[in-house]
Amino acid sequence: MTVLMVFIFLGMSTEMLELSELVINHGGRITQVLLLVFYLLPDLILFALPATTLMAVFVAFLRLSSSNEILAMKSSGISLFQMLPTVLLVSLTSSLIAAFLGIVGSPWGNRSFKDLDFQTLQSKAASEIKERIFFQPLDNVTFYISSYSTSEKTMKDVLMADRRDPTGANTIVAKEAKILSDPESRTITFVFLNGTSSYVHKDLRTMVGRFDSHSESIGMDEMMESAAAGDKDPKEMSLRELRNLINRESKGGLGYNTALIKLLEKFSIPLAVLLMGIIGVPLGAQLKSGDRTVGIVVGLIVFLIYYLCLAAVRNLCETGFVTPFIGVWAPNLFLLISCLYLWHRATKERPIHILEKMTFFWEHRRRQYFEIGE
Questions:
Q1: pTM, whole model, 2 decimals?
Q2: Mean pLDDT for each consecutive 10-residue tract of the chain (374 residues)?
């Protein structure tokens, strides 16, 4: 549980900037922030589960090893393989939780996070509308209105100066304007009625025109830099939606590869959780020292190598350098080879050299530390 909380905290720290911006710059309430944190939990738990499973099994067998209980069980004819069913049950349970989070929990959480983000920004856009003064609902867009109806979301005698286009500025003057929002595309649209539009290019060329109806949309990505507007992101999609996206995209393209990676990871990550739990047995059983520090470091190194492989493979697969069908399973292949190697050494009662060296180094440094302290 401690390992799980640590990894959730580390994952949450990467989102703190966006959450802080929501409160400070966009008027978000504390309750909304807590709800956003809740929506992030499925992704964070999924990230932490491999390490949590590895460390849980490892610590259990380390305690058995350090108190010589494993040696006693071996003397009684009980091998490590006979202890494996309980480990498999724990690891399989964690693997099923990871599968549920990957297939159901994570897409729901990511989609709900974006939807609440949009609702907050939509409320902000409406709350910042002021009558008979100039106001800016976002950077580079300035409004002036004579009156505003909150119930109908209608503005009268409107002026909008739009400087979002780097090639020029557009000024719209209209008798009336309405605010429409689309949660699906996460955009807020201003519909101007009976007005004129004046576009001044940066080389001072001017274009003026009249209109009966004119629309200007503001995407969520313009109102909050780190949020994305438009269609669903692959991490928000269900299995069926990912399959449909893969069928629509051209094979080998960025959209195709990204969707295929997300689809395959829904099965590869639960398998990684299962393998992490099995690896924890020989790691814990091979350490004879009562000091857990070395084993924890080794366990974290295994976890770190796995995630570095996962991140590297994602980049290679997205660019098409490696096909996702092979690349996504490469980190699991590393875990499988590590698992077979560690179990072979443990069953043959051959020491794992890296553990011996790290234990010797740790004990040596600790003795030096205490000698200096004295």
A1: 0.67
A2: 68 65 60 81 87 84 78 80 88 93 90 76 63 76 85 86 86 90 72 91 85 80 44 80 88 86 92 91 71 64 81 85 88 88 80 59 57 50
In the numeric block, the tokens 């500025």 are attached to: 169
Q: Which long-range contacts (CB under 8 A, 24 or more apart) does 24-30 make?
A: 26/120, 26/121, 26/124, 26/223, 26/224, 27/120, 27/123, 27/124, 27/127, 28/120
Shared domain check, 263 and 347: yes
Residue 374 lies in a domain: no
Which residue type sits at 130? K
Query: Which residues, other chains included, contact 164 with Cβ-Cβ below 8 Å and sequence gap of 6+?
Result: 140, 141, 222
Q: Provide the 8-state DSSP code for 224.
A: S
Give me the amino acid identity at 79: S
**Is 228 domain-assigned?**
no
- DSSP three-state, residue 228: coil
DSSP state of 133: S
Nearest by Cα to 342 from 80, 85, 76: 80
Any domain includes 87: yes
Number of domains comprising the chain = 2
The b-or-e profile of 144-158 (16+ CB within 10 A means b, else e) is bbeebeeeeebbeeb
- For residues 91 and 276, give the distance between their C-alpha atoms in angstroms, rounded to a whole number: 8
Distance between CA atoms of 114 and 232, rounded to whole angstroms? 10
| Pure H helices in the chain | 2-13, 16-26, 30-66, 69-75, 80-100, 106-127, 220-223, 239-248, 254-286, 293-319, 324-327, 330-347, 353-373
What whole-number distance in Å separates Cα of residue 297 and Cα of residue 304? 10
Structural domain span for residue 148: 129-223
Residue type, 191: V
Please report the DSSP string for 67-118 in residue order. TTHHHHHHHTT--HHHHHHHHHHHHHHHHHHHHHIIIIIHHHHHHHHHHHHH
